[in-house]
Specification:
globular; mainly beta
Amino acid sequence: QVQLVESGGGLVQAGGSLSVSCAATGRTFSSYVMGWFRQTPGKEREFVAAINGSGRRIYYADSVNGRFTISRDNGKNMVYLQMNSLKPEDTAVYYCAATTSVFRWLESNEYAYWGQGTQVTVSS
């Protein structure tokens, strides 16, 4: 099965930048749609961004559009989320997710594989 490991989380001041990464196992990484989700206590897991296997189709949540950039390097089995102009409301555990097929890219239950998450905290 696919295994995903996130890294790069940490503490940053509002207005700053941070990049989180997701390392994936497997020989068919390029066939997976990859997504980033985030979650805070008491809330549903929230869609952040997704990218298809080729990297040619990308979706962003309205709340992060224009500030965050998702990218992937299929040669390295890596997915990245560059976060700029961070706000305190971006504070959450960020999860990397993968699926071989997707009908609703923004729905967390469409993704079969998940990492353990990495904490991102944005201070005011």
